[in-house]
Amino acid sequence: QGSRQSIDIHYWIGNTSSQDEQGAAAIYVTQLDEYLGGSPLQHREVQGYESPRFRGYFKNGLIYKKGGVASGFHHVDTNVYNILRLLHVKGRKHVTATEVEVSWNSFNNGDIFLLDIGKAIVQWNGPQSNRREKLKAVLLAQDIRDRERGGRAQIGVVEGGDEKDSPELMKIMTAVLGQRNGPVREATPDDRSDQAQNNNVRLYHGNLVVQEVATEPLTQDLLRSSDCYIADQRGSSVMVWKGKQASKEERREALNRALGYIKAKNYPSSTSVKVMSEGGESAMFKHLFKSWRDKGQTQGLGTTYNVGKIAKVDQTKFDVMQLHARPELAAQHRMVDDASGDVTVWRIENLELAEVNRRTYGQFYGGDCYLVLYTYQRSGQQQYILYMWQGRHATTDEITACAYQAVNVDNKYNGAPVQVRVVMGKEPRHFLAIFKGKLIIFEGGTGRASAVNPDKGARLFQVRGNDELSTKATEVQARASSLNTNDVFLLKTDHVSYLWYGKGCSGDERVVGRAMSDVLSKQDKQVVMEGQEPAEFWVALGGKGPYASDKRMQREEPLHSPRLFECSNQTGRFRMTEVDDFTQDDLDEEDVMLLDTWEEIFLWVGNLANQYETKEAWNSAQEYLRTHPARRDPDTPIIFVKEGHEPPTFTGWFNAWDPHKWSVSESDLSERTQSPVLMNLSPSSRFNLTFTDGGIKSPSAGYSGKFLDPELLINKSPSELPQGVDPSQREAHLSDVDFENLLGSSRADFLRLPKWRQTDLKKKAGLF
């Protein structure tokens, strides 16, 4: 958070650990927390229910071993081959492998199993497992080979639906497991699914007696520095907050109090528990609150920026010219560029697109729906944003037609546009900017040339903004109660227009108010200062009355750290898996991802995401907002982003974004969607193993017949290469250790690179 270092302490509880062991672990955590000054964020992790952050530490997966201290604390011998175990592998993003009975009875068609016999590891892929799970299991098998066997074990892969294609590997499996009697069991559902978002949250405090303080939506002012609090999401998560001025005893007992609370509530022992100190709150905790302001957070929209999860950037004056050079700035300000691109506007008329007269650009009527296509340049290439503006009084048919026509426009540009749903009154900043201070929102009526809008008499418009990039005029009820001392208003009557300046508005707001009034009305304007209104002004508003007259600092949306979720609606209920400490690599091509930046919701759709999840993406985002514990605004802008067409307002939330990551040809994409089995893991790989009455033997623990000495491959002409080596695929004959040493990345990461980058690396390594 900012420049302050954050510390996380995780303690892990095995399923068969004793109460004494669990208690001792909690004591050690408390002592370590005190030693580190009470600032760490404490996490209680339970086997099988670990947090995304904990699982994220183990990129190749978690292995749950049988036994206790002996297996958990002894060092790993890397040259021991007297091993026989069967690992049940589960998970797409965070993999876990659990030791199960070495028997065909442990298998099922939906998961992946690793038969580890020391000198060989056989991966059996259930027919119903998917590409991502297979790849993750391969990486886990490689990790076992490299860490536990010194890179000397052989790996083979069997596709459970095509076992006949791997006769040698099946011979090994049969020798170990015996002959299989009958078919493998059908796929079984996971014991636990990812936690559904729980919009019911309660706040408690108290020492001997725990008392309820409030229910959702929570506000930050409920937390007093002299107390400790428990935030309970109906048992799905329990979080403890320790105030800075709470007594030492209270702070020390915070974790034990949370564990006692879980027991008293009869919550499952696997319930997530987190303990945090004031000033060190997690993003998840802050998201439980309707508003949150960190100490030292600046005020005043558009003047300074703060980067949240991105590495700290010194505060500076907002400069649109820096948006492309500094995507984190673009993300923070929700601005892809300086709004100088081309704009085309269509209105939905008779369910078809009708181009809007350019002279009326910026005028939006509440009875209509519009499509706005914005075109701009980035790195010499044209980029597109397609805004779908929905009037508050538009018909259901018009809203449906707007979405349908958006698909047609999207197809016309080969899926390149970023699609943004805009609900009337919730226009994002960039939408305001592209109309250069001339955006006017009429409450009702229509902009159609043939339509005649009824004469409404006096009309009142609220003008907000500091410059032409942030200004809009919104029609409000022509009543005194609509006025606000902090804003500029234009009151338009048949004979005269009044420009009303509230006492709390700034000089910049008055300037843009004057400019907007010239767009709204060609009549002469009578400037009216708050408190000096003529009688005619109040008559036009139906009489003088009370209105918002409290001066306040300009309100800024609270800065929340962004959160990334993998979304799924496949169980019939919206579920999500949070990706902690996310990077670009977490955007998987087979997934639909939701990035919540608080002011906006991004839906990122990978090129290989299934049609069902893509179709349901909009509904999923709306469900996420609806069920959010902080009672989020359901009209928060939802931005639809496709892989390879990410705007800087999206990429700026990621550190070190690589714009070429997905720049691959169709042939490359086809190669990547084939079997995830890596080159040196072909099912047909020959295993140099001998079967005897005593079991399985290997003549050596060294070279398996697949890998070659790098000296035989580097800087050799095709005629000098060993027989059977494809000159264009020399890297396929390297061990994983040699591969990483020569090419600087793992085999899996290398295969994700575009072809030109792979070729460049191979040339530098002498492998081309």
TrEMBL record:
Residues 702-768 form the HP domain. It holds the Pfam family VHP. GO terms for cellular component: actin cytoskeleton; cytoplasm. It is found in: Cytoplasm, Cytoskeleton. PROSITE patterns: HP. GO terms for biological process: actin filament severing; actin polymerization or depolymerization; barbed-end actin filament capping. Transmembrane segments: none annotated. Keywords: Actin capping, Actin-binding, Calcium, Cytoplasm, Cytoskeleton, Repeat. It comes from the Eukaryota. One of its GO terms (molecular function) is actin filament binding. Belongs to the villin/gelsolin family. This is Villin like. It comes from Sparus aurata (Gilthead sea bream).
